Amino acid sequence: MSDAYAKAGVDQGAADSAVAGLVKALGAIQLGRPSRQVPLPGHYASVIKLDERTGIALSTDGVGTKLLIAEHLGRFDTIGIDCVAMNVNDVICVGAEPLAMLDYIAIDRADPAVCAEVGVGLARGAELAGVEIPGGELAQLGEMVRGVDVSGACFGTVALEEIIDGSRVQPGDVIVGLPSSGLHSNGYTLARSALDGLSPDDDPEGRLGRPLTDELLEPTEIYVKPVLELLRSSVDVRGLAHITSGGLGNLTRLAAEVAYEIEEPLPVLPIFELIAERSGTADEEMHEVFNMGCGFCCIVAAADEQQAVDLLRPHYPGAKRIGSAVDGPREIRRH
Fold first, then answer.
1. Strands 37-38, 54-62: parallel, antiparallel or unpaired by DSSP?
2. Residue pLDDT, tens place only, 61-107
3. 63 in a structural domain
4. For 296, which DSSP code?
5. Are 135 and 100 contacting, i.e. CB atoms less than 8 angstroms apart?
6. Do 94 and 226 reside in the same domain of the chain?
């Protein structure tokens, strides 16, 4: 990841090295028993064997610097939706059904009004995902935190024989893209830098169709119910990818040694064009930082393309084939 994001304050190279250090340390854990972990290196969620048939899928994530927008505007009622979305959308990627999540709110001082608004979003997100939130943690960390941070952890269940890790993806399989609702919860450090100086009520040149405030706080789309419907159909689903930071490059986190050719991408949303213009960020980097209008991908057998699109379009009218898996090294090829 290159110049604009680093200048805005995110060093992705350092982050990758930090994660590598964590993974190395955690890999040295001595259990005194065989590991229950299902090998899914680099995938969206982790799976632990509960017994010989069932796995527990686990994911944890937060809202990131989108919270700074919420704090600046004093609007916290949608942030909980983002927290739920970032977790459940990862859990569904292994073919698991998300069941419940816990939230963690770190705040400088307990503010009943702020926490109540965050709770409204968490409840709405839980309803959209079909999960429960049976508990969580509120930590007052005035010496460590300025403002508020919201994160969570989700778990679901999956039959071990039905785990989807992308290993069955083969050349000729079809990539169906599902539209995003906007920025979701990634790239806000660059977005805030690019849009600095604009009024929250602005709609530059009328291109967004609504105030910038509403665009920036638009909740992350929750894809769980439509994707579960797809998984429960006769469609042969071979890979699922949550398109977050990394863009369509997240497809390469799937296990198959194939390339992904993007022939007809979903339309780029106006907010991304605005960020690129105001920051001078190159197109390649924009596609590395943002979802660019595609928030989730379903890879299905070519013979099931139409059935998959027919199932998904009632939920997402813009859903369509955006490309296919092809022979080659694990990479993204854009036309």
1. unpaired
2. 999 999 999 999 999 999 999 999 999 999 999 999 999 999 999 99
3. yes
4. E
5. no
6. no
Q: From its phi and psi, is residue 64 left (phi > 0), alpha (psi between -120 and 50) or beta?
A: left
278 φ, ψ to 5°?
Answer: -75, -25
Are the C-beta atoms of 298 and 178 separated by less than 8 Å?
Answer: yes
pTM: 0.91
Based on the fold, state whether residues 157 and 181 are members of the same structural domain.
no
Q: Per this entry, what is the length of the chain? A: 335
Spatial CA neighbour of 105 closest among 150, 153, 147, 154: 150
Tell me the C-alpha distance between 96 and 83, whole Å: 18
55 in Cβ contact with 47 (< 8 Å): yes
Query: Which of 140, 139, 66 has its CA nearest to residue 102?
Result: 139
The continuous run of DSSP H or E covering 152 comes out as: strand 148-159
Q: Are the C-beta atoms of 74 and 148 separated by less than 8 Å? A: no
> Is position 105 within any domain?
yes
Find the helix or strand (DSSP H, E) in which 88 lies.
helix 79-91
Q: Tokens 């213009």 label which residue?
A: 277
Same domain, residue pair 72 and 196: no
- Rounded to an integer, what is the distance from CA 210 to the centroid of its chain? 24
* Domain interval for residue 118: 36-162
114 and 196 in a single domain? The answer is no
Q: Are residues 153 and 186 in the same domain?
A: no
Helix, strand, coil percentages (3-state) for the chain, rounded to 5, are: 35, 25, 40
Per the structure, the count of domains in the chain is 2
CB atoms under 10 Å from CB of 174, counted, come to 21
Q: Are residues 158 and 198 in the same domain?
A: no
What are the structure tokens assigned to 280, written together?
A: 């001078």
**Which pair of tokens denotes residue 139?**
């930590």
Q: Which DSSP category does 328 fall into?
A: S
Establish if 11 belongs to a structural domain.
no
Q: Residue 269: CA atoms inside 13 Å, Cβ hemisphere, count?
A: 21
pLDDT digits (tens, 9 = 90+) for 104-145: 999 999 899 999 999 999 999 999 999 999 999 999 998 888
